[in-house]
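User: Can you fold this complex?
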Amino acid sequence: MTNPADDDVLPIVQMRGITISFPGVLALDAVDFFLRSGEVHALMGENGAGKSTLIKALTGVYSIDSGSIVVAGQAQEFGSTHDAQAAGIATVYQEVNLCTNLSVGENVMLGHEPRKGGRIDWSALHREAARYLSGLGIHVDTHSLLSSHSIAIQQLVAISRAMVLDSKVLILDEPTSSLDRGEVEQLFSVIRDLRDTGVAILFVSHFLEQVYEISDRITVLRNGALVGEYLAKELPRDELVKKMIGRELDDLAALSVASSRPIDRATTPVLRAKGVGKRGMLEPADVDVFSGEVVGIAGLLGSGRTELVRLLYGADKAETGHIEIQGSTAKVTSPRHAIDHRIAFSSEDRREEGIVADLTVAENIVLGIQARKGWFRKVRASEQDAIVREYIEALGVRPADPNMIAGNLSGGNQQKVLLGRWLATAPKLIILDEPTRGIDVGAKADIQRKVAELSAAGLSVIFISSELEEVLRLAQRVVVMRDRRRIGELTSQDVSLDGLIDFIANKDEGTAA
Amino acid sequence: MTRILKHRLFWPLIALAVLLAINAITQPRFMKITVRDGELYGALIDILRNSAPLMLVALGMTIVIATRGIDLSVGAIMAVSGAVGLTIIDSSGSPENLGTVAVAVVVAVLVALVLGVWNGFLVSVLKIQPIIATLVLMLAGRGVALLITGGFITTVNSGPFEFIASGYILGLPFAFLLAMAAVAAVGIFERRTALGVLTEAVGINPEASRLAGVRSRSIIWSAYVLSGTLAGVAGIIYASNIKAADANAAGLFIELNAILAVVLGGTSLMGGKFSIAGTVIGVFIIQTLESTILFLGVPSAQSPVFFAAVVVIVVLVQSPRVHRAGRHFTQAIRNRGSSPVPADSEVAA
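Assistant: Here's the predicted assembly.
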């Protein structure tokens, strides 16, 4: 463990004894955290470990119950995010919070527009914005709409905003969760440049590899308490994982048998889609899923994998192709149709398309059943209690409080609630789009284990994930997508991770299996 | 104690209590309730009676707002409903006949229901923005009402009809009981069925609700039908009170007071969670305030300013941000009074 007293310079951010409690939950229990200029410091922990809460304390979103925050030698008591910004702390969140309907230049300079005679000097604004952007190695037209750029560029724009504010502390909360490999590289080179100019960078990510690639120091939290602060080069990876979860993770290895479980494909498939497509969205593609089978869909972000499953579920209307369910042709042009055929779909966008944030955990879990029954026949209270208790327990939702407002749960627990919502409707096929994105190791393992367990019991699953190891571990077959087209299909047993990556990247067109 | 403080109806109730207290102190006769022939009279009873039309309209507005919508047409629907009702009674030739009045009321409310169906159709099927969709009827409705009454203010003398606004049952004003019955019926209906929670789900996150299989179209549609129907009943009470159908004055600006009542009661204009009890308190706050203006003798030309000033204060009192600032302030004072604290932390507080 490292000790702040050993440092030559005083840490720019000193958080001591930070305690924050919410009704019924001690979110942070006397946690110390120190961030130094010119370092990349990773904050690690499971869902509900207190990472987000600590960040929100530092950015002024939450006020602290006790403890002290000192930034650049000055004691601070943040009453709002504005106070934190004024103290030189800038934050780039997982979901980019910029104005996508404004231009790149306007976003960079927002609130700091150069003025001439009381009016905004637009040419100076774009010149300045371009200067900040090129300082980060980004060369885009500052007049273009932010929404016309990729998430990666949007994230870099958010970072350049932090530079405009002349921030000494930069917090990056899951910045890489929706970036591809090349974009991550670009982001990391920007981070390294900033670090070398003396900016203190707090980095949060669920990708262990990236944490080790970029971080100098690692602080681990567990259950709201500090586990310790370590130099990254002195902390082996398995040690880190053990410290994060506080238990051995060897049971995940047992899952590897899931992908080799034999599937009887002589039967009628649960779902068979032929030539399902939509102009501008997806070229006609085929998929079939058999009883008890997990079909993975692999491909980069934007490869058409989400588009494909949205058409299968009726979330978007397909223009071509037809769908057979249990052998008979079915019309699936709205989610209601899919649900009537016992198909469930958990969207990749948990916040916008999944959780109903202001309702309780219990109300969120029974929402699927209630929607099926219609508004007039309300699920009885006793029945609701039983269902909710069952799924909270089976999926390990924490805190296990049915009356908690769902929006206050951590991402992983929200995902478990959504899984519970769909499993409660007893589906025959469940489509999971990125169910493990942005959630930590422990919750990820819980969800993977549940998927393996349910499919072994006969549930069919379509599983999408950016983490190919996960796909190969769970799925018996993998459908590969690229550029909004299905380019082939692999059997998990016959392919290695490198083989799958090579297939996604290099597979010749026209020879699709 | 903290549980009481955190309850979302706490601050609205405090606001109402303070308003009532101000009246009671400045005008002792305000709190006086007399019994005459087994019927209650007094300023408080007047507030209960006069609140009935706003109560009905705000009740429907609560549900519409919960779906992320708004219904601007309620005032115009009141005018149409009153015009239909009175025209039927007027042209029947037997205004004192209970059957005639019953038919008139039922037809008037049915017409209001149809107008609600129209609003709901525009919003839920044609996906027109609620503010625009209901603006259509808000502007056109009074014209329709004028067409029905032939451009005149139709007046009637009908005992059974007048009973609606000025009659008493069990010592309480009939109009008040009618409004409370509607509140209870809607409240029980929303919570006993799943309509309430599904309405909230649609209001909080329409896309998540759609993907979860909620039939949001019928839920949103039903909210406008309810709002229209309740506005129809409110129109009947209004017409009964003045014994006339005044297409220009009936329910004028009531949509704004209804929205205000909903917001004062703690339901967010962003949609989602709604509180019918909160709306009831919000309506009483507004109605008490109107009486206060009369009682204090505020000149009518200045009464809107007075009204607005009080509303701003009430809204501020309820704002969480003001509560937080207040806590910081009292804490700072307490710190200064007691033990010395390091100077640097004091500055930030």
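Residues 181-196 of chain A form the longest helix (16 residues). The two ends of chain A are 53 Å apart (CA to CA).
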